[in-house]
Design a protein that fits this description.
Elements lengths: L1 H35 L4 H13 L2 E6 L5 E3 L2 H10 L10 E7 L2 E10 L3 E8 L5 H47 L13 H51 L6 H28 L10 E4 H19 L3 E4 L6 E4 L1 H18 L6 E8 L2 E8 L6 H5 L6 H6 L10 H11 L3 E6 L5 E8 L1
Parallel strand pairs: 7-9
Antiparallel strand pairs: 1-2, 1-5, 3-4, 4-5, 6-8, 9-10, 10-12, 11-12
Length: 431
């Protein structure tokens, strides 16, 4: 397309240049003829014969103003171009069109005896114009051919890496994660390939975490289910009788409660991204909510031999939020802290007021986490897989659920080291 446009533009320039060349040649010939013409009829006839061989018409104007010539079309062209007004001070450089044919007219005065005009038809299909057009068309054809060949080569060079990239993308869509796009070809295609490779790596990591998460959840579900099933079979087979029955019933109830909490957490985690996730927002006094939660966790910590402390401003701290979800967040963080804290180390529930809102903190004196672990603490199942078998761990969904709930409440949660030596989890809620 570029070569074609360039050819069309060049054709216009060639036509203009050819017309200019014809005009310059005819002007020079008119100057020579006007200088040589005189009273000698033989000279006049000789010049006319020479010009006729060049397809140039000669038109004369006598002293009386009469205009004559052997070629009547040339005479008409000269008249229309203004040949009658030619003087020594006013030569004629004209162009006229008669019957769709263009003529160039050059007129000169001949002493005081009259004037002479040379008339030539503009015919670019012959002579210099023809040669120029032929050269142009040849160059245009060669340019289009070269452009077509270059386009085919370039398209093939681009299509090969594009096809490889498309094949890898299709394989990824069907579950393959081991394929990568080679880093070759133009810069833009290399960048696309690197982006797809990064996507494949991210998908592989995400799916690996999902598998680990499902394995951990399956393990957590199987433990209470095994207990419930074993004790139920004991009751059904009559192995457990008499005074042992109430204790077995309480164990079954406890394990069933664990199952219920786990299933509820899984459902809440799955529903967090849904539009119909319910929030009952109202004015909540966080001091009262913290005190109610503290009564529960103080007794649980006492059973585990863990000192428990509450830090509260001692006055109402009212924010507009969902009290049930906030209590769920506090209980989830407190459960996580108690599980990681050894006997003798403290667990602290704290509340403080900040500009525009309030901060709830759960701190512990456990082993804490590394800086990398604090950054990944709220990613589902990351800490579970990292510390499984090293320290007591939960299901791997508690902190992820806390993060999701706080986000839906319009707040923010972060993790870091605590003054007590363990981990600190802070929940900021806007007023």
């Amino acid at each position: 397309m570029t070569a074609l446009v360039a050819g069309l533009v060049s054709a216009g320039l060639v036509v203009k240049q050819s017309r200019d060349v014809l005009r310059e040649q005819l002007s020079a010939q008119a100057d020579v003829v006007s200088a040589q013409l005189g009273d000698v009829p033989v000279a006049g006839r000789r010049v006319a014969e020479i010009l006729d061989g060049l397809n140039v018409g000669v038109v004369r104007r006598g002293r009386n103003g009469g205009i004559a010539g052997d070629d009547q079309q040339a005479v008409r062209a000269a008249r229309r171009a203004g040949f009658a007004q030619v003087t020594a001070e006013r030569p004629l450089h004209g162009t006229v069109t008669i019957g769709g044919v263009e003529y160039i007219v050059e007129g000169r005065a001949v002493d005081d005896r009259g004037a002479v005009a040379l008339v030539q038809q503009v015919d670019l299909a012959s002579g210099t114009g023809r040669d120029l057009l032929r050269s142009l068309l040849l160059a245009l054809g060669v340019g289009i051919l070269v452009a077509a060949l270059a386009g085919m080569v370039l398209a093939r060079l681009l299509a090969r890496p594009l096809r490889r990239t498309a094949d890898v993308a299709v394989s990824m869509r069907h579950g393959r994660r081991d394929l990568r796009v080679p880093a070759d070809g133009p810069k833009e295609l290399v960048e696309v390939g690197e982006a797809i490779n990064a996507l494949a790596d991210a998908l592989a990591r995400s799916e690996a975490r999902q598998r680990e998460f499902l394995l951990s959840v399956s393990h957590e579900l199987r433990t209470p289910l095994t207990a419930v099933r074993g004790f139920a079979e004991s009751l059904a087979d009559g192995v457990v009788t008499g005074d042992e029955v109430p204790a077995v019933g309480r164990t079954i109830e406890t394990e069933a409660g664990r199952l219920d909490r786990l299933v509820s957490d899984l459902l809440d985690l799955a529903r967090l991204g849904a539009d119909d996730f319910r929030l009952d927002v109202l004015d909540v006094d966080l001091s009262t909510l913290l005190a109610e939660s503290a009564r529960v966790w103080e007794s649980r910590c006492a059973v585990a031999g863990v000192p428990f402390r509450v830090e509260s401003p001692g006055q109402p701290v009212v924010v507009r939020t969902d009290p049930r979800r906030v209590r769920q967040v506090v209980d989830g963080l407190a459960s996580n802290a108690l599980r990681a804290t050894p006997a003798g180390a403290p667990v602290v529930l704290a509340l403080r007021v900040v500009p525009g809102g309030a901060v709830l903190e759960v701190r512990d004196g456990g082993p804490g986490l590394s800086d990398e672990d604090y950054r990944a603490a709220f990613q589902r199942g990351v800490l579970h897989s990292r510390y499984l078998g090293v320290r007591p761990v939960g299901t791997g969904i508690g902190l992820a659920l806390v993060h999701g709930l706080v986000t839906r409440l319009g707040g923010a949660v972060d993790a870091g080291p605590a003054p007590e030596g363990g981990a600190r989890f802070s929940v900021t809620l806007p007023r």
